[in-house]
Design brief:
- By secondary structure, the chain is an alpha/beta fold.
- The protein contains 18 helices and 16 strands.
- The longest helix has 30 residues.
- Bound molecules: ligand ME8.
- It is an enzyme of class 6 (ligase).
- Keywords: Aminoacyl-tRNA synthetase, ATP-binding, Cytoplasm, Ligase, Nucleotide-binding, Protein biosynthesis.
Length: 518
Amino acid sequence: MAEPYYLTTAIHYPNGKPHIGHAYETIAADVIARFQRLRGREVRFQTGTDEHGLKMAQKARDLGMAPRELADEMSGHFKELFDVLNISYDRFIRTTDADHHNASQAIWQAMEAKGDLYLDRYEGWYSVRDEAYYDEKELVEGEGGEKLSPQGTPVEWTEEETWFFRLSNYAEPLLALLNTPGFLEPASRRNEMIAFVERGLQDLSVSRTSFDWGVKVPDSDGHVMYVWVDALTNYITGVGYPDGGELWDKFWPADLHLIGKDIVRFHTIYWPAFLMSAGLALPKKVFGHGFLLNRGVKESKSLGNVTDPMELAERFGVDALRYFLLAEVTFGQDGSYSAEALVNKVNAELANSFGNLAQRTLSMIAKNMDGTLERFDSSVDDRALLVKVHEACADILPREFDQLAFSIGIEAWLRAVYACNAYVDEQAPWALKKTDPERMKAVLQTLFIAIRDLAIAIQPVVPEKSVAVLDQLGIPADRRAYADLSDDGWFEALVAGGHAIDPPKPVFPRLELPSEEP
Ligand code: ME8
């Protein structure tokens, strides 16, 4: 039986169109989902939009729209982008979905039944941009002397009667959780969270009365839930809470919540506390990835440097964008991107190295071997190359991807591609054609095997391109998993048994920078 694997992204605020950070997080999650499927896990992958709260309500008001209308329009842009980016989600959840309201009210009632909710007066600072409450001592001073949140966003003084959650009761189990190896990664994010708990946890205001765009608090007229209570609950809505059932039994607790570094507090303090209060199991891991910067600078509307990820995907191709983001950025740290960096990297590594290797080899097989493989005697060099490629594809890349160290895994893969190209140059099959045609066949078949390994291994990152290569190699769709890399008997028989391929078509075009680009 395949072991289940449940992974989620943050759900995105649809108060505007998606930006490159949303694309980055969701692509990374998709790489994980595809990777785990290829390892034989039964994956459930959820993403979606976080549609309630003051930020959405205010944005809609500014635009003269109803919040629901804004949510519908923008959520549609997110879904469209994720479909274009080839995101293999199982559910795109919207917090306005009926089952989500139901789940949020159910977790509320469970927390209330535990005695963790009480009514009181809230007085304090609130950032609409972060949808977060802050203590006076957390605030920083802006350039004009104004008070700002630690994220640098404006805060406003708020006073209202709200429900409170007894967060202060959970300091001890939260510290134990934060100290559990593997729960919060990268480990560098742990200290900040531990320090936050150790400073003393205040009870959390969890409802609002000054607006009504949210999930209604059960039996409490005029109160809607604080948007983060309902937002975090999306992770259990999607697997059948509160009714339970097959999805619930199989997939909760989640294996991984993938989120950005700015919302680690919500996921490693508030969310586990809510779950503990409701008597539910805790997620196994929260990973806080870094931020993507445009040439080293955070994108913002005022700087006019906002990139539309849809445009990038259309201009350079989805797989080029996916490869660049995963190969370029050390996962967990901030990363920088630009059109020229993307074009240079993708041309050097995919078009000129892997693409060229596949195209050259398959053309020579088509031309000089009638497109047909046969049994061959391998030399020491052939075997050395295949050992190296196999190690990169079947051992190193999967091991690193399992640790979410994508760029390191891809680097090992790329070194194997370079080794193949060096082997082509050394062996010079085009010269062997005249001097030793049998040896030429052995070289081309060795390369055929290597390309199969390389294409299988890189599937999570460039799904469309690797499928095209595997199709050209004639590898059946049910022989493309990681385990197939080590199932030698079947593959040896295929290569030895007169396996025929068609002349190849180029899969990795060279990219051009548009002329207006500096
Ligand atoms: O925070 N680079 O939504 P959001 C990388 N609705 N990642 C980035 C980024 C950037 N430049 N900018 C944002 C929310 N992100 C809440 C989440 S979850 C129950 C609720 C990441 O639309 C950000 O860190 O502001 C977050 O993980 C995700 O994009 C959605 O951000």
